[in-house]
Amino acid sequence: RPERPNQRNTEREPNCAFATKMADFGKEMEEHKFENGQLSIVGQDLEEIPLSFCDKYGSNTKRLDLSWNNISTLKNLEKFPNLEELILDNNDLTSPLTFPKLPKLHTLWMNKNQINDVGAVFDKKVVAKNLPSLNYVSLLNNPGCPNELIQKDYEDYKRYRYFLLNRIPKLIFLDSNKVTPEERAEGQRIGHL
């Protein structure tokens, strides 16, 4: 039976109050997730790591994902002493940056930030002291990090790799490429230039 144009079909309309409550509940659940030592706080417009998360999860977190925020500082990162993996993709990090002491950190992703000087982020002495286990770094799509696929300047990309291999001698992977023994030797020889 056809409806009249001015008649509302209340049988098919969702209960707006219930839908709003469910949306709020869903948003609350999406704000962060902690499971098996992994803390994910993705897409929350954070400018820094909230102290409340540090207090609650810091000592138990091994993997921290802060992607898709507005993070511009590493403030409070020292509250995660057992951190092994850190994902800071798609944030507002710029150079210079100084990493706190994170002795277990082996994997660092900082793709798609605003880093224009990798030397101001990875000082050789600071890396040796504060990030002694670091062996996987990805810095793709930062202004100061050449990309062999996009910019097509392979020599510039090689110099960038040598430079970082000199600064982070234990690297096994840089960006998405495995470090070769030849690169490692060349990085130690000329990477400081």
Question: What does this protein structure show overall?
Answer:
With 193 residues, this protein is α/β, with parallel strands linked by helices. It has one domain: Ribonuclease Inhibitor (Leucine-rich repeat, LRR (right-handed beta-alpha superhelix), Alpha-Beta Horseshoe), CATH 3.80.10.10. It contains five helices and eight strands. It has an eight-stranded mixed β-sheet, with no helix packed on it. Helix 4 packs across helix 5 (181-190). The longest helix is centred in the N-terminal third of the chain and has 15 residues, at 16-30. It starts with 15 loop residues before the first helix and ends with a helix.
What descriptive keywords fit this protein?
single chain; 193 residues; alpha/beta; Leucine-rich repeat, LRR (right-handed beta-alpha superhelix); eight-stranded mixed β-sheet; 5 helices; globular; disordered N terminus
Give the number of DSSP strands.
8
How much strand content do the residues show?
A: 5-15%
Main structural class: alpha/beta
Please mark out the parts with pLDDT under 50 across 5 or more consecutive residues, or reply none. 1-29
CATH fold category name: Leucine-rich repeat, LRR (right-handed beta-alpha superhelix)
Order of helices and strands: HEEHEEEHEHEEH
The portion of residues assigned to helices is 25-40%
How many separate domains? 1
Mean pLDDT: 86
Which of globular, elongated, flat, extended, rod-shaped describes the shape?
globular
Strand order of the largest sheet: 1-2-3-4-5-6-7-8
- CATH architecture label: Alpha-Beta Horseshoe
Helical segment count: 5
Largest sheet: 8 strands, mixed
Protein name: Leucine-rich repeat-containing protein 51
Organism: Paramoeba aestuarina
InterPro entries: Leu-rich_rpt, LRMDA, LRR_dom_sf
